[in-house]
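Example for tutorial group B:
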């Protein structure tokens, strides 16, 4: 078992501020901090932090009002109408099934 350790000097992740003029300049994947700051990281390790004012200005844009595409169907989460239909069908099955046998 080796007990020798090599100390290394820590370095800050390089950052820079870039003014974004259009929502198309935002990446497809980004992260958030517990405080709500949005950021993304480049393949080289540079962290990109997005300005809160810019994001708030864009919240009423047509793209922000468009629902996300390619979401999985999760009743009650991504598709409310399917949840309502399932509840209606369960109620109808309960009413139509007087002898307690499961419906097929």
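The residue assignment follows.
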């Amino acid at each position: 078992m080796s007990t020798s350790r090599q100390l290394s000097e820590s370095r800050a992740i390089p950052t820079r501020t870039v003014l974004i003029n259009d929502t198309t300049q935002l990446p497809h994947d980004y992260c958030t901090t517990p405080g709500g700051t949005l950021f993304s990281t480049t393949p080289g390790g540079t962290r990109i932090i997005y300005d809160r004012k810019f994001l708030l200005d864009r919240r009423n844009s047509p793209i922000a009002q468009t629902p996300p595409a390619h979401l999985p169907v999760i009743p009650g989460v991504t598709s409310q109408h399917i949840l309502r239909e399932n509840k209606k069908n369960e109620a109808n099955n309960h009413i139509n099934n007087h002898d307690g046998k499961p419906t097929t």
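The radius of gyration is 25 Å. Compare this with the pattern of hydrophobic and polar residues in the output above.
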